[in-house]
Amino acid sequence: MYVAVKGGEKAIENSQRLLADERRGDRHVNEVTLQQIDGQLSLAVDRVMTEGSLYDRELAALAVKQARGDLIEAVFLLRAYRTTLPRFGASEPIDTGRMAIRRRISATYKDLPGGQILGASFDYTHRLLDFTLAADGERPEGELSDHVIDNEMPRVVELLDRDGMMEAELPADDEPVADLTRDSIQFPAGRDARLQALARGDEGFLLALGYSNQRGFGNTHPFAGEIRVGEVAVEFVPEELGFAIEVAEITVTECQMINQFQGSATQPPQFTRGYGLTFGYCERKAMAMSLVDRSLRASELGEDVNAPVQDQEFVLYHADNVEASGFVQHLKLPHYIDFQSELVIIRRIREQIERNRGAHQEAAE
Amino acid sequence: MPTQPLDASRIAPGFADPVLDAQSVFRGVLAAMARPGAIAEIDIALEPPAPLNAATAAVCLALADFDTPVWLDAAAAPAADFLRFHCGCPIADDPAEARFAVIAGALPALPPFAQGSDEYPDTSTTLLFQAGGLRPDGGWSLAGPGIAQTARIGIDGLPADFAMAWRRNNALFPRGVDLVITADRRLCCLPRTTTVRS
Amino acid sequence: MTMSATDESAPAGDDEQHRTATIDGYNFAFLDEQTKRMIRRAILKAVAIPGYQVPFGSREMPLPYGWGTGGIQVTASVIGPDDVLKVIDQGADDTTNAVNIRRFFAKTAGVDTTERTKEATIVQTRHRVPETPLAEGQILVYQVPIPEPLRWIEPRETETRKMHALEEYGTMQVSLYEDIAKFGRIAKGYNYPVLVNGRYVMSPSPIPKFDNPKMDRNPALQLFGAGREKRIYAIPPHTPVKSLDFDDYPFDVETWNQPCALCGATDTFLDEVVLDDKGGRMFCCSDTEYCAERQARAAGRARGDAA
Fold it and tell me: Rounded to an integer, what distance in angstroms lies between the CA atom of residue A292 and that of residue A276?
């Protein structure tokens, strides 16, 4: 006698207990702390904050810990928490021109005001596994140079701007800014909605799209005009005060990609811009984002739209890894009703074909 | 329009329980919108300022907020402070900008309100019209989605040419406004799909 | 049987308890009030325009997209302390996803839950319409993965929105006719498109076409939530819902050659259960509550006969 599978509730409880147990791992090994994750896996925390669109290092570290290092799961945890937070307004735009710089590089000028600052980077490391790390090797602290970094370091694109070589891009101050977490996206999407979707978008997806763009699927001839990393102030104007107060200092990575120029017989040619911005230090993401941002401007700049990276609906509907992960993984939920109705149809069609074949044979005999 | 600072002490209270009152009022509106001609009763404590009746005030408190500009006819204008204070809703000057319209006087012509577009017909205005009275089994015969055969309802205070105006609204489908008719603590709905005959 | 969610929340019937019986720091039914208002407005417009997909600012829920976030947001915006909730997945109350969503509402809204279709004021479902006919006043909430019935024909939202606006459904007819040319019948078993009130082509969600006729002129209010795709749509009670077909190839539903092995029903949607690897299989009702009730009634009759 068949009895329908019961006890789903018990199974879920047990599964979650087992999950908690496996997350903890070997009890002889110290539990990892949020400080350790924040301090020593800081780039994981940065990515989770960026794609989770919530700047809170401690919560992001908690999400990484709870998700057992699965960063997309951690992004999901942070997003689900973020959605419950009350909104009391929007901050003033951050000014990356007044950034306290940690790293600043330009691929378009050998030297420029403020200089090139390499900062901490994987760029010129030889990718050799460092076995002293495996052996608990402590590192001497980095020595700080006496050189004082200019706090007012002009952005490379502003240098071009001054010569009229760069397209001007200033939004009207009084225009409301789109928010995808409050309204569903509509097409054609404005640059604000696009940039928000890209900032929240999956790094791997944007990386692949940006790469496809470089390989000729909608080439935009990019130059890394400037990448800068550092701290900026976040200011907010409380209704009751009427003036801006600084509420936080956050680390951001900004990439301004300088792209192929626009112009005509009457209009002097200018460079165009692709923009990328992330929380924390997510340089690969910021660069990929700026490539995709510029590609998505194809139709407004009068370029042909024929590559995936230029297609707003394709890029923006599929960039979100929380959405994508949920929908791909929902395939493991039961689908036996739908499968059964397919079985019924396929059997009917096969029966029909068998009958037809039989009739043909009879006729032939 | 220039807005005066609000004196909160002079504003009548809103929902006693903002969470559960809003839920119960919404369910009333939903039931009425899903069954045109059916009368829903607002059974929460609410003493709104004139000229709002309890049902209109309850619907506004349940559904309006800073995302929904509300247009007020001249007769409803004194309710502006109450709505701004409790709902935080902007008061719309232009009926075409309004998500909700509160009408305490005569029902105006419908075309000036937002009608929605063929691609986004949901962006039309929902009108809250305060009628003189609402009775089941009155002189109007209704048909359309939500109604098994026909429904009858009595509505006092509709203009003489309402049937014609509503037929024009029907003809715009999928565009068109939706109507919530209130009287005292009662309400009924005429979504754009409902046809009326007197 | 009414299952009050006593393990995690208030005892049933205690109103005061209901109000506080939610998890710490979260609002009644999880969503904040501003979000509920936005969803409630979308639901009302959906009811006013039967079959039209209303865009809404879908929130990120603590459950994954694709696992019922749309249905959950609709239910959370509709539900009140006096409601009785039933949740099914594949027709069954005890599948893990159904259990999980029921737990969510027991925890966040402290509502009573039930397995009995007749007792429920709200039924949230994935992939089935209950076999027990619904009544006036009940609300059926469908979880929808892809709300756009034209998506398989045209992947672009900008295009499909135009097609709906212009009532341009020729390509859908062509695609169904291609099935007939190829297989001799419309080879769509689930998510079979319907025409609502003679105007909008609508996805019924991935219910088997067996359930399509139940949507037609149903006295209950049917609400559809697609969380990831950020759309809500509705069918008001008593509204005509027609499955698309052709005069020479009329719509038909799945049939089986045997009755339910458990309750003997011949008019229900059957699950196929594989018993061994030698081709042994049995068929039984996918609607577990309907099946169990029929079995209980039969057992009662048998006892009555014996007495």
Answer: 9
| Residue C197, phi-psi category: left (phi > 0), alpha (psi -120 to 50), beta (remainder) | left
Burial of C255 from C-beta contacts in 10 A (0-12 / 13-18 / 19+): exposed
Instruction: Given the residues C13, C51, C57, C279, select the one marked as catalytic.
Output: C51
- Report the alpha-carbon angle C190-C193-C196, nearest 5: 135
Q: In Å, what is the CA distance from B148 to each residue of A196, B37, B137, C273?
A: 47, 11, 15, 40
| Tens-digit pLDDT profile for residues B138-189 | 899 999 999 999 999 999 999 999 999 999 999 999 999 999 999 999 999 9
* Other C-beta atoms lying within 10 Å of the C-beta of residue B161: 11
Instruction: ipTM value, please give it.
Output: 0.96
DSSP letters, A76-89, are HHHHHHHTTS----
The domain spans of chain B are 15-197
Q: Does C48 contact B33 at a Cβ distance shorter than 8 Å? A: yes
Task: Give the sheet arrangement for strand B133-143, strand by strand.
Answer: B151-156, B133-143, B195-197
> Could you tell me which residues come within 8 angstroms of residue C36 by beta carbon, excluding any fewer than 6 positions away?
B22, B23, B26, C29, C76, C77
Query: What angle separates helix A57-66 from helix A71-82, to the nearest 10 degrees?
Result: 130
Task: Determine which of C60, C104, C186, C295 to mutate to test the interface with A (most A C-beta atoms within 10 Å).
Answer: C60
Nearest-CA distance A177 → chain C (Å) = 15
Give the pLDDT confidence of A114-156 residue by residue, as tens digits. Answer: 889 999 999 999 999 988 888 876 777 777 777 777 767 888 8
C51 is an active site residue? yes
What letter does residue A225 receive in the DSSP assignment? E
- For residue range C282-298, list pLDDT tens digits in order: 999 999 999 999 999 99
Q: What is the DSSP letter of A31?
A: P
What's the predicted TM-score (pTM) here? 0.91
- pLDDT, tens digit, for every residue of A259-301? 977 777 777 888 999 999 999 999 999 999 999 999 999 988 8
- Where are chain A's structural domains? 2-82, 96-121+145-168+181-319
Neighbours of C83 (CB within 10 A): 20
Cα C42 to Cα C35: distance, rounded to the nearest angstrom? 11
CB contact (8 A) between residue B120 and residue C19: no
Q: What is the rounded CA–CA span in Å between residue A49 and residue A37? A: 13
Q: Which residues contact A6 (CB under 8 A, 6 or more apart)?
A: C94
3.50.40.10, 3.40.50.11310, 3.10.20.740, 2.40.110.10: CATH of B15-197: 3.40.50.11310
Q: Find the CB nearest C236 among B34, B65, B99.
A: B34
8 Å CB contact of A327 and C156: no
Does pLDDT of C128 surpass 80?
A: yes
Question: B27: which 2 tokens?
Answer: 């369910």
**What are the two backbone dihedrals, phi and then psi, of residue A101, each rounded to the nearest 5 degrees?**
-75, 135
Bridge partners, C3 (sequence order) = C113
3-class SS at A353? helix
Shortest distance between the Cα of C220 and any Cα of chain A, in A, equals: 23
Q: What angle do CA B101, B103, B108 make, to 5 degrees?
A: 95
| Interchain pair C99, A9: CB under 8 A | yes
Q: Does B27 touch chain C (CB under 8 A)?
A: yes
Helices (H), C52-148: 69-78, 96-109
C284 is catalytic: no
- Cα–Cα distance for residue pair B59/B44, rounded to 1 Å: 12
Average pLDDT over residues A321-332: 95
